[in-house]
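Re-run with default settings, no changes from the original entry. Doing this only to confirm the output is reproducible before filing.
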Amino acid sequence: MNQSNISNNQRRITFSSHLPQVKNDANLSEPEEKFTELEEKFIQVIKEKFAKMKKEKKEQKDLMIQGRFQIFLKSKDFLRLIVSIYDYCTDLNKIEKKHSILEEEAKDRINAPPQLLASEIQRITAKAKECSIAYSLVILHWGNLRDRNKDQNFFDSMIYILERIMEEFFDRHDYKKVKEEINRLFRTNTFNMQKRRHIVDEYIKKFPQMNDAGDLKKENPEKIIQKVEQRFNVPNLNIKLQMNAEKSEIKPMFIKNTPCGSYNARSPLVALLYPSTKEKMHIYDKDRKKRQSSIGGSRILNENEVSFMIRHDRYKQQNLQKAQRGNSLLSMSFL
């Protein structure tokens, strides 16, 4: 019995000698996560914007901040979502600026309007898909299926702080477009509240008599009557038409829906990841039109091509008229 106990003890000693030796050091901890410079900037801006958001909550009663929202802002899911949206918006702005410059140059030279490159479309679509993957992780980890109101308030506050964060990374002119695109990605075209506000603001700037911000009680009745008379000459604002008027070739999943259809539709971020049958048809139809435009032959002309042909014909007619006038002047001089 004693020999067996000794042999067992020896086995234990030999087995324990092969185990890794762990030092009892109080400074030992898990390795710290390394962030890029951009991510560190985002982390700092998140803290600043959340502090401002708390102050704004006192003034804005509609703004809801849940208890877990602060934890969500410190999570990897939110950081990944911010970085992907920032990357997408920066690339989209570059492409839009480039094409706006090329379109102006084409108008001056009376050339055909520039077309998007296949590489540009693929790059933007890939970055939009990265945004959709990051958003799907947020839905899975932080969504609340039991309470729909809390879930809606959570994502509304997420979009709100996303807009405020992007304000620090874009110019004033570009930030307006970025806000519209963020709302489009999360809320579809019809429910893009930022774009709707911008359209109304531009309409009021153009026609200040349509502004109802003044206090009617303090104003004179004559001024009120003048405003009403001036409004008769102002054209009506067609918001539905302007909401769907966009360069849909650049922005992925820009589906033109009616208000009734968009109520049942899903956001572009969800549609990119899990497209429905209608959304798949939209993608297929878009690809088909691109193939038809690349291949020559009989096909339906789009609006840009028709406008180019009209301008080109007008330019020819103007040159012919100038030539005829020059010939008539020469003939008169000989007489």
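Residues 41 and 133 are 22 Å apart (CA to CA). Residues 6-31, 296-300 have pLDDT under 50 and may be disordered.
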